[in-house]
Amino acid sequence: MRTLENEGLITIHSRSCIRFVKADLELSRSTYQFRSLIEQAGARSLAETGDARIIAQMIAAHRDLLAVLDQADLGPAEEERLGQLEEQLHGALIAALRNPLIEITARRLKNYVTLVRLDRLVTRPLAIRTLREHLDILEACASRDADAAEIALASHFQQALQRILGMA
């Protein structure tokens, strides 16, 4: 809690409450810019050296959820599964770098992402768009096209930031 307070993410009012700082445009932009710097390198690394079996499993899981969403609305179970796939993909991008300092930084960035997304409404069309963007990244990795993986990741983060800002 003190770390979050020191980073300006929460305000602690002793014996009263804890208040989360509302994410603004600058925090959102900065968070996604920093993530992009780190995860583009991760996309390149996953494409070049990632375990093909794990990449294929992630592709299959994304396609499975897309198939469900083609037939049904986004319910709590689908939203939870989307969150798991999000964690799995972005975690794999970070892990592909094999750098404990980056892993620590990524965990801190995850706190920022959580704050930025607090007021975000996830709808079926947005979930489908996110899954397709993830598949672009994963399919580039599966074909060992590091340049395409980096480009797909950069595009995904641009689109995600626009969704958060209510522009897409």
List keywords for this structure.
168 residues; mainly alpha; two-stranded antiparallel sheet; 7 helices; 2 strands; 74% helix; globular
What does this structure look like?
With 168 residues, the chain is mainly alpha-helical. Helix content is 74%, strand content 5%. The protein has 7 helices and 2 strands, in the order αββαααααα. The chain has helices at 2-6, 25-49, 52-71, 76-95, 100-116, 124-142, 146-164; strands at 10-13, 17-20. Strands 1-2 form a two-stranded antiparallel ribbon. The longest helix is centred in the N-terminal third of the chain and has 25 residues, at 25-49. The chain is globular, with a radius of gyration of 17 Å.
Silhouette: globular
Question: Over the alpha carbons, how many angstroms does the gyration radius reach?
Answer: 17 Å
Query: How many β strands by DSSP?
Result: 2
Kindly report the average pLDDT value: 88
What percentage of residues falls in helices of 4 or more residues?
over 70%
Give, in order, the helices and strands. Answer: HEEHHHHHH
Could you say which structural class the secondary elements and strand pairing correspond to?
Answer: mainly alpha
